[in-house]
Design a protein that fits this description.
This protein has 288 residues and is α+β, with helices and mostly antiparallel strands. It contains 9 helices and 11 strands. The strands form 3 sheets. It has a 6-stranded antiparallel sheet, covered by helices on one side. Helix 3 packs antiparallel against helix 4 and helix 3 packs antiparallel against helix 7. It starts with 5 loop residues before the first strand and ends with a helix.
């Protein structure tokens, strides 16, 4: 589609991105003079019934971190008009700044856990399945928005297949990849695995989605980072779902209990103290 083409009451201004399910345009709603994100949905990927059902599901979600869905309509193709989020992706934000400070990272982590709590406690639960920095927008006021629900699914129970699985290397949990004759699967713990990877990326600047990534301790990148934060990240990123946090509220509770982060062995605490002092000396010239 060329720029300046009109679809319904929307005038196409630019292309925002393209994925497996369709292309997203920046458009203007000429009747209300507002910008929108207009998603053109590939009909070869989904049936009309699936498109209508998923649009209704997105329309009914209400959370400050989720974009508002305005309407679904058909004009040669199916289009979904949504709130346009101004800002930059978390991926671009970190790439341009290296990483974020621990305090900011914890604030954003708490916000992500809040929206995951909301999604996971719907009836039935909503599993995002493709949580990654590219799908998180940093708005101009410093808040976050979760966008691109193309990989999202309602949780299935029993032996029912989850259907098509979206998975991004470096962020998707191991169970989201088919192996040993098993179908890929995802539940709340899969989203928490990806959350752990994102939090790791935020405070270290080491992108799990790009080689050569190795899961080193966060203290390897900055000894001033808290040992408690390391434990939270490690538990989220456990290979086996049973070893991870089971619900987002549990992660949020530990993230907010900063007083427990300081509890460690005397020997471990002393070594951590020495590491921090050496790091400070090298970075800003503070004496031991």
């Amino acid at each position: 589609m060329e720029k300046e083409k009109t679809v319904g009451k929307y005038r196409i201004l630019d292309t925002l991105g393209e994925g497996g399910e369709g292309r997203v345009y920046l458009a203007e709603d000429e009747s209300l003079s507002r910008k929108v994100a207009l998603k053109c949905i590939r009909q070869t990927e989904k049936t009309e019934e699936e498109i209508r059902r998923e649009a209704a599901f997105l329309r009914d979600l209400r959370h400050p971190m989720l974009p508002v869905v305005y309407e679904l309509f058909y004009e040669d193709d199916w289009y979904l008009a949504m709130e346009y989020i101004e800002g930059e992706s978390l991926q671009c934000y970190i790439e341009s700044r290296g990483r974020v400070e621990e305090a900011q990272g914890c604030l954003w982590a708490d916000a992500l856990l809040d929206v995951l709590c909301y999604l996971h406690t719907r009836k039935p639960p909503v599993i995002y399945r493709d949580l990654k920095p590219d799908n998180i927008m940093v708005c101009r006021d410093g808040t976050l928005k979760l966008v691109d629900f193309g990989g999202t699914a309602l949780k299935s129970y029993g032996e029912k297949c989850v259907g098509r699985m979206v998975a991004t290397a470096g962020y998707a949990a191991p169970e989201q990849w088919p192996e040993k004759g098993q179908n890929p699967r995802a539940d709340e713990r899969s989203d928490l695995y990806a959350f752990g990877k994102i939090l790791y990326y935020m405070v270290t600047g080491a992108d799990p989605g790009k080689p050569p990534y190795t899961a080193l301790s966060i203290a390897h990148y900055d000894p001033l980072l808290s040992a408690g934060l390391e434990r939270i990240i490690r538990r989220c990123m456990e290979e086996e779902p049973e070893a991870r946090y089971q619900v987002a509220e549990e992660v949020r509770r530990d993230l907010q209990r900063r007083d427990l982060w300081k509890k460690k062995s005397i020997a471990g605490g002393f070594l951590r103290h020495v590491e921090k002092q050496v790091y400070l000396t090298q970075k800003v010239g503070v004496g031991l």
